[in-house]
């Protein structure tokens, strides 16, 4: 491709609505567009997504490319990547932003490959390099100990963006934009979904939670996670766990956080009985505030925490829960 221009985000939907990541990517794109002075467009791929185009415009898109149809009902690599490629060829952007979500982690690299483009994944910072005028993306490594800054030499440049790093803007229904239907020429997919196992969802989804209450091996038992569940429910948050806690049978692996688990970026991450190993921090270092309770004053988690209490969680946690209850009652 040549004469690339504009920033294209690949939006996502959930339950017939735009998923939060779509607004977050539009915020990121608008932020870059302040420097590049290029238009921002959004790709919406799915069944019935045509009706969501105006919402994407209200959130910051100047143009929305739509690939709508029953064939896109489920996310499948072969259908969604083909549609994203067709849209990217029509939009001809210089930068493509994709959410670092389960679907985006699958789509982003496939899309970059099909466009012969370079990609940077799991970014938490995006900027335009003043020298090259190209995208400069930064991502945390080894649980936030290092930050890797990546400049991509190809055009377009593709980047996946970590969830909850950018705030979606307030929708502005007076914004005007153009909606373009793209014929992606996608026929019946070879892949077929034969079954679906949905883990039981207690309360808020981990990735959506503003507060995550996480337990480690220091909890000592499955029973000890009960107060963590109670605290998470009280704070409208979600429970997480370390690999060591899950491997010890204290909690289920579906909420494991870290390098090989889920990645969360809540406002508050309460780490109880967690040492703060780099593989665990890889999943929570994007939290705004990490609050740690650990009996070892030299535990690594304290280096990563905004606030910490050195002590046995069996003494500290009940007092913490009492204070939380009092605060909630007084508001
Ligand atoms: C390739 C690879 C991938 C990995 N991926 C992941 C991953 O995705 N997620 C992950 O979590 N780990 C992962 N790990 C494992 C990781 O290296 C650590 O072993 C793990 O995170 C440690 O979990 P922990 O902090 O619960 O346990 P520990 O390291 O055993 O720490 C327990 C902590 O609890 C404290 N403690 C004990 N009793 C109490 C008490 N009564 N009150 C307060 N504090 C107490 C201790 O002081 C200690 O700091 C991975 C490892 C490898 C090699």
What do these coordinates show?
- It is a single chain.
- The protein is α/β, with parallel strands linked by helices and 331 residues long.
- The chain is 28% helix and 25% strand.
- The chain contains 9 helices and 17 strands.
- Strands 7-11-6-1-4-5-12 form a 7-stranded parallel sheet, with helices on both faces. A 5-stranded parallel sheet has the order 14-13-15-16-17. A 3-stranded antiparallel sheet has the order 8-9-10.
- The longest helix is centred in the last third of the chain and has 18 residues, at 313-330.
- It is elongated, with a radius of gyration of 21 Å.
- It starts with 6 loop residues before the first strand and ends with a helix.
- The relative contact order is 0.12.
- The mean pLDDT is 94.
- It binds flavin-adenine dinucleotide (FAD).
- Flavin-adenine dinucleotide binds at residues 216-218, 242-245, 256-261, 273-275, 277, 279-280, 283, 293-296, 299, 312-314.
- Residues 216-218, 242-245, 256-261, 273-275, 277, 279-280, 283, 293-296, 299, 312-314 line the site of flavin-adenine dinucleotide.
End-to-end distance, in Å?
57 Å
State the total count of DSSP E strands.
Answer: 17
User: What number of structural domains do the residues give?
Assistant: 2
Mean pLDDT: 94
């Amino acid at each position: 491709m040549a004469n690339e221009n504009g920033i294209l985000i690949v939006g996502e939907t959930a339950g017939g609505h735009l998923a939060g990541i779509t607004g977050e990517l539009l915020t990121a794109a608008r932020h870059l567009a302040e420097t590049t002075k290029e238009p921002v467009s959004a790709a919406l791929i799915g069944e019935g997504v045509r009706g969501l185009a105006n919402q994407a415009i209200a959130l910051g898109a100047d143009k929305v490319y739509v690939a709508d149809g029953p064939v896109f009902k489920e996310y499948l690599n072969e259908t969604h990547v083909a549609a994203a490629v067709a849209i990217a060829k029509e939009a001809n952007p210089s930068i493509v932003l994709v959410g670092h979500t389960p679907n985006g982690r699958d789509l982003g690299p496939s899309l970059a490959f099909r466009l012969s483009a370079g990609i940077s994944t799991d970014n938490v910072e995006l900027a335009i390099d003043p020298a090259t005028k190209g995208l400069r993306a930064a991502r945390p490594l080894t649980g936030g100990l290092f930050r890797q800054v990546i400049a991509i030499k190809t055009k377009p440049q593709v980047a996946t963006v970590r969830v909850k790093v950018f705030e979606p803007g307030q929708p502005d229904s007076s914004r005007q934009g153009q909606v373009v239907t793209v014929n992606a020429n996608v026929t019946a997919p070879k892949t077929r979904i034969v079954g679906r196992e949905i883990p039981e969802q207690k309360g808020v989804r981990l990735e959506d939670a503003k507060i995550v209450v996480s337990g480690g091996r220091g909890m000592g038992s499955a029973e000890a996670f009960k107060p963590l569940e109670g605290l998470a429910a009280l704070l409208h948050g979600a429970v997480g766990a370390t690999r060591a806690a899950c491997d010890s049978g204290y909690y289920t692996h579906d909420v494991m956080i870290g390098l090989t688990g889920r990645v969360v970026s809540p406002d508050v991450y309460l780490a109880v009985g967690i040492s703060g190993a780099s593989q665990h921090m890889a999943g929570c270092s994007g939290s705004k505030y990490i609050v740690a309770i650990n009996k070892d004053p030299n535990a690594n988690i304290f280096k990563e925490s905004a606030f910490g209490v050195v002590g046995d969680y069996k003494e500290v946690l009940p007092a913490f829960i009492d204070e939380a209850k009092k605060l909630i009652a007084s508001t």
